[in-house]
Amino acid sequence: MDDSVTLPPPFAPSAPGESASPESLAPSGAAPAAPLAPHDPADIARGEIERIDAALLDLLGERLRQVEILARAAPSGGLPISPAREVRLLRALIAGAKDRVEPEHVVEIWRALIGAAARRQRPIDVAVCVGAGPDNYRAFDLARRHFGARTRLHRFDDVRAALNRVAESDDVVAVVPWPGKTGAGMWWHALTESRYARLRLIGALPMRAFEGQAPEAAIVAAGAPLEAAGGDACLAIAFDRHFRIARALADAGIKGEEIARSDNKVLIRIEGYVDSDDPRFAAVARAGLDQFRVIGAFAQV
Asked: What's the CA gap between 48 and 150, in Å, rounded?
């Protein structure tokens, strides 16, 4: 028996400046290697996305660092949220995005950023009144989307219980049904009581509204100043024992209307932003409306 083996031919190096072809490196008898494919466009796009993600992460870190600087420089004691300023910001971003990013995506992304920034300044709790009925989860959904994933939400079945929680602490805001003339919205007349004198309606949810869409919920806070965002509406309450509200508003030159009534208490919607010390309110008082005061202001994107 012949125990000898056949060795492959010796490897011949390429001449200087030349590279060995795949065929020359393949074992004898093997099929030629496939030529190298050009760069895959999908791989190139994935690489660009990863590069952009890294840049975004750096920018987000810098944004939060500036938030911390702001928190140290700003006066202490105020809420770390400002719905009017947030509305102005979102409107500007949507206008700048043009057709590149859908408005809903702009709102969703920046609401998360705004929520993170608020937590860096000062954590707040949110008392959510869920109410009754099959859609009671909706209030939680609105609150979570608005205030962010890590904000502490607390469930309340009764609006007054949520309002009490806000009245007791400046670190709590409430999300309650939008005030109205029927059902869960009939809580608004409680704001005529002295215990709730510091409470203000400072925002409407959802913040992004389609044309003709009424707000579903209100953000209520204690001692928060009302601000104008542009395209605002205000809510006011008064005692109207003689049903003079329409005449009183007209005589004072205020564009508004009654939207709900509970006995002699009336809820009024005023078009545009009005300060609590608006001189026209004196004319409203002279017309027979007692304790007329603005309880809220809101605007939507």
From this structure: 30
Confirm if 219 and 128 have CB atoms less than 8 A apart: no
Q: Which of 138, 142, 132 is nearest to 184 (CA)?
A: 132
Length of the chain: 301
Q: What are phi and psi of 107, to 5 degrees?
A: -65, -45
Tokens at 173, concatenated? 């805001």
Over pLDDT 70: what percentage of the chain? Answer: 86
Q: What does the alpha-carbon distance between residue 199 and residue 159 come to, in Å, rounded to a whole number?
A: 13
242 touches 261 (CB < 8 A): no
d(CA 151, CA 111): 12
Q: For residues 167 and 76, give the distance between their C-alpha atoms in angstroms, rounded to a whole number.
A: 19
pTM of the model: 0.84
Strands 172-177 and 290-298, sheet pairing: unpaired
On whether the CB atoms of residues 112 and 149 are closer than 8 A, the answer is yes
User: Is there a contact between 174 and 166 (Cβ–Cβ < 8 Å)?
Assistant: yes
pLDDT tens digit sequence for 213-224:
889 999 999 989
26-34 long-range Cβ contacts below 8 angstroms, 24+ apart: none
The whole-number average pLDDT for the span 142-163 is 95
Query: Phi and psi of 148, rounded to 5°?
Result: 105, 160
First vs last C-alpha separation in the chain:
92
Q: Report d(CA 106, CA 117) in Å as an integer.
A: 16
Whether residue 133 has pLDDT greater than 50: yes
| Confidence label for 32 from pLDDT (cuts 50, 70 and 90) | low
Structure tokens at 22: 């795949």
Lookup result for tokens 């057709």: 99
User: Where are the chain's structural domains?
Assistant: 56-298
